[in-house]
Design brief:
Elements (H helix, E strand, L loop, with lengths): L1 E2 L2 E6 L4 E10 L10 H11 L17 E9 L5 E9 L3 E2 L3
Parallel strand pairs: 1-6
Antiparallel strand pairs: 2-3, 3-4, 4-5
The structure holds zinc ion.
């Protein structure tokens, strides 16, 4: 699905409808390397306790949850907006 480059949505900072620039926001977090579970996982990859077995394995959700980063043209503050699950999200270049 194509998403327009600019959207006119409500800005909670200006308290009115203004033009917003649209960007995609990556929501996935990086694992910290010092966490307890991550240390156990690294031990397993080294060869202790056998090789880690995938749980489930099958990919049952095809569509991805997208989050848009909307930046207000007037106050330059940005808000996040959840978008419905889609396979591909494209921002049009016009
Ligand atoms: Zn604003």
């Amino acid at each position: 699905m194509k998403v327009p480059k600019e959207m006119e949505v409500y800005c909670p900072h200006c308290k009115k409808y203004t033009v917003h620039a649209v960007k995609t926001q990556k929501t996935s977090k990086k694992r910290s390397k010092l966490g307890h579970a991550e240390r156990l996982h690294q031990d397993r990859l080294k060869g202790y306790h056998g090789f880690p077995v995938k749980v489930g394995g099958g990919k049952y959700k095809v569509n991805i949850q997208h989050t848009l980063l909307l930046t207000c043209a007037e106050c330059k503050k940005s808000t996040l907006k959840n978008y419905p699950r889609l396979k591909i999200l494209e921002i049009s270049k016009e």
